[in-house]
């Protein structure tokens, strides 16, 4: 990537804050976010919401950060560092959701409503879904749910067709966010389409499904890349296209890594490392 293209409209390298949980195996959470933000030409920072004990085979334990300390991390960073965009990932509880909502700086927010880990472990308490929907969704420039997450937010069955995806994306946008990127990775078939609903209508972003187990942290990676590009000043549709292409490269290049025996991570620096 040409360093000359990494700056915001004001000629400065963008600063992106990730508010999310930690993955000690490095494939998801803030670890993935910081890699994706860096690979997309911005400076990454992180406020932790939870510590997890996990590897590529699954989550074995979660230790929550007290809500007031989550808020303190965001507040202290914002007092000293210009923040150009925020990515929100694992929130875990209603209390943390509200604490984050009350402390967010007035910048574009990309919300990835993380609910279940790749291995099946729940990462969001049942009562937190309402808090996420009411406190954080309306503050988002873009939310990036997958099909089960969209269904949980809307209280309906998961979409199984493109038509249902478009309808649910519009319904989610009616909750108050500026745009919705609904990810179609759970659809059957060889394609993996995503749909963006914004003020200009519905836009489709096509993708070919890659037959691989190395998809740990793809949602984290996509939302962090999107936040980096929005923070750099790119329009949302352009940022979505670039972030999706980046994730596709990261998945395709994952075979170069040798990390774990379960759902391996994507290669965040595919095409960048020699």
A few lines on this structure:
35% of the residues lie in helices and 19% in strands.
Describe this structure in words.
The protein has helices at about 30-40, 65-80, 95-105, 130-135, 145-155, 160-175, 220-230, 235-250, and strands spanning about 15-20, 45-55, 60-65, 85-90, 110, 140-145, 180-185, 195-200, 200-205. The strands form two sheets. Strands 3-2-1-4-5-6 form a six-stranded mixed sheet. The chain has a three-stranded antiparallel sheet with strand order 7-8-9, with helices on both faces. The chain has a single domain (about 15-255), classed as Ribokinase (UDP-N-acetylmuramoyl-L-alanine:D-glutamate ligase). It has eight helices and nine strands. Its EC number is 2.7.1.49.
Separation of the first and last Cα atoms: 13 Å
CATH architecture: 3-Layer(aba) Sandwich
Question: Helix and strand succession?
Answer: EHEEHEHEHEHHEEEHH
Q: Radius of gyration in whole Å, from Cα?
A: 17 Å
- What characterizes the major β-sheet? 6 strands, mixed
- Work out the number of β strands: 9
Classify the helix fraction into a percent range: 25-40%
At the first level of CATH, the class is Alpha Beta
EC number: 2.7.1.49
Domain Pyridoxamine kinase/Phosphomethylpyrimidine kinase: 23-267
Organism: Roseovarius atlanticus
GO biological process, one term: thiamine diphosphate biosynthetic process
């Amino acid at each position: 990537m040409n360093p000359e293209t990494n700056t915001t409209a004001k000629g400065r390298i963008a600063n992106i804050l990730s508010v999310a949980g930690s993955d000690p195996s490095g494939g998801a959470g803030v670890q993935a976010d910081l890699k994706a933000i860096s690979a997309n030409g911005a400076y990454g920072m992180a406020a932790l919401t939870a510590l997890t004990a996990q590897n590529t085979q699954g989550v074995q334990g979660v230790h929550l950060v007290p809500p007031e300390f989550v808020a303190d991390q965001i507040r202290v960073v914002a007092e000293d560092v210009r923040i150009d965009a925020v990515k929100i990932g694992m929130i875990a509880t209603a209390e943390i959701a509200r604490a984050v909502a009350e402390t967010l700086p007035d910048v574009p927010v990309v919300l990835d409503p993380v609910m279940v880990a790749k291995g099946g472990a729940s990462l969001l308490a049942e009562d937190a879904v309402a808090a996420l929907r009411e406190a954080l969704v309306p503050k988002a420039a873009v939310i990036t749910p997958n099909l089960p997450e969209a269904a949980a937010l809307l209280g309906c069955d998961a979409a199984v067709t493109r038509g249902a995806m478009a309808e649910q994306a519009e319904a989610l946008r009616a909750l108050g966010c500026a745009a919705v990127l609904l990810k179609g990775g759970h659809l059957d078939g060889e394609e993996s389409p995503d749909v963006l609903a914004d003020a200009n209508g519905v836009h489709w972003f096509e993708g070919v499904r890659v037959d691989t187990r190395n998809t740990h942290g793809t949602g984290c990676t996509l939302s962090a890349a999107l936040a980096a590009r929005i923070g750099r000043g790119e329009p949302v549709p352009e940022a979505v296209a670039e972030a999706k292409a980046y994730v596709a490269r990261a998945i395709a290049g994952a075979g170069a890594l040798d990390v774990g025996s379960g759902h391996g991570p994507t290669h965040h620096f595919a095409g960048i490392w020699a």
